[in-house]
Write a structure and sequence with these properties.
Layout lengths: L6 H5 L7 H15 L8 H17 L2 H12 L13 H10 L3 H4 L10 H9 L11 E7 L1 H6 L1 E12 L14 E3 L8 E6 L2 E6 L8 E3 L11 E12 L8 E4 L15 E7 L5 E4 L2 E9 H6 L1 E6 L5 E6 L8 E4 L5 E2 L2 E2 L2 E8 L6 H14 L4
Parallel strand pairs: 1-9, 11-17
Antiparallel strand pairs: 2-7, 3-6, 4-5, 8-9, 10-11, 12-13, 14-17, 15-16
Length: 367
């Protein structure tokens, strides 16, 4: 997370916004600026990262409370919009927080503020969690019923392959930062109070290349889109989620990478529909087939066809059960229910009408 950013402004919500409002704002903005929807817009990818970062803080009650406290103390007064390099962002983290504006001395009664500030922004820490990337994926009806794999594409920051994440051009001399002596962090504060922050000179890396990498412009990371095959549990339904540990954004401080939270959207099938553990379908037959009996082929969720015997005198709406051909879940398997729909001719030819009347008379039917 980056200090100096107004996460409420990024999500276009008020500081008093409810969790549901924040979640809706995030989903709307994430859908609009998702890199998959803007493949040729680097600015959209950068804004998508900011949106995810903001939601990662404001959606967590504890982090939001800490963030609001720092916001009230003026920690974000110096925030500025637009892009900035990693070094600029680190420098802005210090500039945005002015202790003399807060007016506390040595002890000041807020000795835990340094830890709080570090816990929000990860200054000097390598174990700070990275907000998860949230995305959704369409799942074919058959895969949702029986399980399988589907691909999902996500855009993440990875170490620049040209410089290996160093930010230096190949062959360039890399000097130890004179400001932090290679630690990557510096302390600032007042009296007995001190907070570690990324070094504004080297951007937290502890090293300064004499010549910047032409690929990443010295940032040490690039944005890429990667394709991941994910397992879909059998019996999954729309709205269910799976978390891919460590598959999300890299941790710039060297800690564990973030997660990817995938929401499943089960696609409908033109022939089959789901009813709990069962799969239901409707098959039309004609009047003669219903009266005299017939055999029909029925498609199953596995994609093959089975022969179903329809006995004579079958009534409209009657259901037949194909055992063990439904949804698979937790070692159990539902059935497929086949509902019979009898098609009645809308219009008869004169000779056909005579035959039907003759049949009705012989059967004692009124018309």
């Amino acid at each position: 997370m980056t200090a100096g950013k107004d996460y409420y402004r990024i999500l276009s919500v008020s500081a008093s916004a409810k969790d549901s409002t924040i979640k809706k704002a995030y989903r709307d903005l994430a859908k609009k600026y998702h890199p998959d929807a803007n493949p040729n817009d680097a600015g959209a990818a950068e804004h998508f990262k900011e949106i995810s970062e903001a939601y990662g803080v404001l959606s967590d009650p504890k982090k939001r409370k800490q963030y609001d406290m720092m916001r009230k103390l003026g920690a974000f007064a110096g925030s500025a919009a637009g892009k900035a390099s990693r070094t600029d962002r680190a420098r802005g983290a210090a500039d945005a927080f002015r202790f003399e504006d807060i007016g506390f001395g040595g002890g000041g009664g807020i000795g835990g503020l340094g830890d709080l500030f570090s816990s929000i922004f990860g200054f000097g820490r390598r174990d700070q969690p990275v907000p998860p990337i949230e995305t959704s994926v369409d799942v074919p009806f058959r895969v949702a019923a029986l399980g399988g794999k589907v691909p999902v594409r996500i855009t993440v920051n990875e170490a620049c392959p040209h410089c290996g994440g160093s930010g230096a051009a190949p062959g360039s001399v890399i000097d130890t930062c004179s400001e932090c002596s290679g630690r990557g962090t510096v302390s600032f504060g007042q009296g007995s109070f001190a907070v570690n922050r990324p070094c504004p000179k080297c951007g937290g890396r502890g090293k300064i290349p004499q010549t910047l990498c032409p690929r990443c412009k010295g940032e040490g990371e690039v944005s890429i889109t990667k394709r991941i095959m994910i397992s879909v549990p059998a019996g999954v339904e729309s709205g269910q989620q799976v978390r891919l540990k460590g598959q999300g954004q890299r941790n710039a401080t060297g800690g564990q990478a973030g997660d990817v939270l995938v929401t499943f959207r089960v696609k409908s099938d033109r022939f089959l529909r789901r009813d709990g553990m069962h799969v239901v379908c409707r098959v039309p037959i004609n009047l003669a087939q219903a009266m005299l009996g017939t055999k029909i082929k029925v498609r199953t969720v596995e994609g093959n066809r089975v022969v179903l015997r329809v006995p004579a005198g079958t009534q409209p709406g009657r259901k037949f059960r194909l055992k063990g051909m439904g949804v698979s879940k937790n070692g159990r398997r539902g059935d497929q229910l086949v509902e019979i729909e009898v098609k009645i001719p809308k219009k008869l030819e004169p000779d056909q009408e005579k035959l039907i009347k003759k049949f009705a008379d012989s059967a004692g039917l009124t018309y």
